[in-house]
């Protein structure tokens, strides 16, 4: 059974900082946000977690495998190298949406995102090593069927983008409302969801829903492991199976060979 | 009258590269994508343009002020420092959607995004210096009313995110279909649109549409200049006026004091 | 007694790559080199190790605390995100110079740095966890007395730089020849040395040697721990003691309070 | 005749910042320093200038081609994205050492590098466009003969490093004292010097001096242009000529074909 550990990463007092004393150059803000995200992706990714850019001032990470000391180090390192600081809240639950609620709650209770005095909250409990299992994290990796042939090589980029967004918006709402799963667009035509234990039927239903509501055809690879990297890697391999076999839903039955070279 | 110069930035052969010889660690892909975007933001931003991350493998830039040599240098520098290369297509029109169509078209005609042989396309004509005017670029900067009070400090981050996405999806479709304007989520609760000449009534209509369709309240600052940075900076200042005056739509009547310190 | 684990990081085939098919823009090479070093510093630093930029195409890291899997992951991640790959050789010995010889040797035996076919060597044995002790790594952190008052605020930058270089060159040779210690300039007026077990008398002799040979006055803080970060942090605190007490050599007698916030 | 425009880049109040309220993790400082340098390299390099990391808290740039507005933008952008700010002083003279003296002087007159109140100095005059000529910048690119065969593939990395350092220290002092030329190690076995107008005899004398004093054999390519990039690129091509022809000193007689693809 899944046991998702999520960490909410929130930049402290960011809104006010971006306009004080005056509005800052937009491209400098974009650069800062993206590079901060990239550093989080490297730190968390090297510990076999996942981070999603989400809204950039608020980011969601799947941190099964990271303990309190890891979170503390991450926060310290960011504070040493950026003109802003981050607050970190951790939440755990078999249901991702509930886990995120807990993560958000411990940060909110410490103060507003725009509270001039609230800095570097570090709260919430990580899963003790002894309690971790191979079923803790389920990751589903979706992509759009033949996006390049249907969209990228034929429409102007914005209309391709609108199609992908429609598919994403539909999937994100459906999976959140039906299952408490959290879905994130990760670039190209790819969406990664952190889910509770879902079945093949659940995924088929989601894919049919998106096709009906947004006229976008998805396929999905699903993996489960003790951490996001291994679950996600297995999901990627399963997605490659979809591509080769021409199928719509594939589960990684065994852990993907994590050939890390 | 607006005369928008847009550049489509497309990573060559990216889909195949990400899975050859095997799928790559997702967090490494996220890091590469974000840092590539950050470098584009710095290069284009320093020349007073804007870049939007869009789908990361395909990005849209407002490049009024950048000439052919600038595009060539950007392409060379990326090619020297990343394991991938980029193709650049430029398009110009008073209507942003048409400009992007032109930009996409010159790249597509050179070959598929996943053509193993197509690399570093550099095509399309930039606006000659002599033809540039202070009315070339209109930028509208939207944000969600009291996002922190209504969402960030109260809901779990994903539900806040879903609300912001609904607002974005609604605005992006409306502005594209009604006016050929292109809208991009840039983090937090901010959306930046590149528009043709729109009136206060057009913006009010767009904001009412989004409130009705997605139940999200927006306000907007609008600026016009010969380049995206100045237009966008004026728009940011106008948005601050909305904040202080409690209004919904504000146009920067004079160029914002660009106090670049 | 010290037991230094050093890793040689060597970019594969870099010389030829920088001029094939033609010489590349120098500032792009500088950017790539610096950002690669920064990524190594983050990865190794987060595991409590140290990395020194050395020659940039060849870098030296103190990797007590990193195991084989860590090295493999580092190599994979760099290979995913840069247009070059790295070879890693590990060597262990109570004497740092001997450890580095071993590290260099395992890479050299696999092939030349400019061998077109040699890529991503990963060789050498890391210290088993059970064999690690609190005396494994000794770090000495030197800085120049009153560099700002004597040099930075008075001479032109290059002449200040020449003075610092003289001090560095003298110290690096003396410590290497006398003790097999390896010294690295790390910016400003700071030099960090990885040493075997040296005494206060050894450090006083080194400082006197540098004053006599290069007319540069140094002071030093020394720390010892199971890894470079803790040893180095203790050394930094000891150096602060020199500053406050007006002394020349200070050893951290107890582990510095590693207040990691 | 040369007319070198140099900019001193100095991080404001850096020494105190690195230890306030407590010493910061060394690898975070290394990361910040390297990434700041990389950003300077990109900004200045894209405008055809050169930057040298020098001491990281103080860096030297050849900025022929950058005007006051460029310097102001660079300073603003760094201030928006880093936890530190930079002061910039510009100096111009046919002799590089004198130019740097002027650049350092305008910063020093505004206050100490560690003055808690001195921030973001921006002083000194850039060369007016109309006064620029193709002879303004002379760049000499040195490398060590057969460094890979003699050192990298045979000695341990630190002893190779010591040899390269000896060669660098000898060259830097000789060229500074004899000619006011400024030399910078740029990685691998490469040294780049910014020189006044020097002759083939001057370069031969420098190379002989280094061989006699440090037992390191150098060869050099020399280029001249209106900016550092073009002069340096021509120098690199001339160095390739040395490699192919087996010569020791080569001047780029015509501008190198700047094939910027």
From TrEMBL, chains A, B, C, D:
It holds the Pfam family GCH_III. The keyword Cytoplasm does not apply. GO terms for molecular function: GTP binding; GTP cyclohydrolase IIa activity. Keywords: GTP-binding, Hydrolase, Nucleotide-binding. The keyword Nucleotide-binding applies. Its EC number is 3.5.4.29. It catalyses: GTP + 3 H2O = 2-amino-5-formylamino-6-(5-phospho-D-ribosylamino)pyrimidin-4(3H)-one + 2 phosphate + 2 H(+). InterPro entries: GTP_CycHdrlase_3, Nucleotide_cyclase, Rev_trsase/Diguanyl_cyclase. Belongs to the archaeal-type GTP cyclohydrolase family. Catalyzes the formation of 2-amino-5-formylamino-6-ribofuranosylamino-4(3H)-pyrimidinone ribonucleotide monophosphate and inorganic phosphate from GTP. Also has an independent pyrophosphate phosphohydrolase activity. PANTHER family: GTP CYCLOHYDROLASE III (PTHR42202:SF1). This is GTP cyclohydrolase III. It comes from Haloferax namakaokahaiae.
